[in-house]
Amino acid sequence: MGKTHIVMIIPPKLLADELGSLMLKLNSQYHTSKALMYYKPHVTLKSLGKISDEKFKGTSGEICCITENIEPFSLTMEGLRFYGSNENFPGIYIPVQKSPELVELHTKLATGLKPYSDNKDRSYKEFENWNPHLTLVGDDISSESLEKAKRELHNVNYSYSFPVDKITLVRHTEERVLPCFYWEMHFGLGKISYTKICDFGFSVG
Question: Domain spanning 3-198: which CATH class is it, in words?
Fold first, then answer.
């Protein structure tokens, strides 16, 4: 059986730490933990689903080709909403502005990686239906806690911007628990520049 792979943007460390602290606070406040289990804060560009090691080789090569011709750009997140890509996924999310540069990157990844993807995963929308966001609280939030969050956070407007000069390909372990493997691809290099095993999760104990 293949392993789950996701291509994402991870904010710079200082901002990732700030957002991570916010995630810990909100998940404690609304009695959830799913968003804390696997990754640091991130914006999903493309979910590949469960793919084999053979497909992974093609995936990493294609991503290198794509990122070789991508210029760094700025990503802006602003606002707050309580559903993800569709109404079936309640939670707490910061919407990401669909700048031309971000849309171009997503489109190239969604198109170029289609031959290597497991198309069984329908939870992530693509192309014109893609709604980029950063998850603060996942879809394990109860309906009661979601309504409470709507009341308490209705005037909250989060706003962040940061430069993007690389993307990250993440592989879950077979048990879909930490640690994860990850590979960083910096724009303009056309190669994988960094590889290691990383604990992306947060301590919830």
Answer: alpha beta
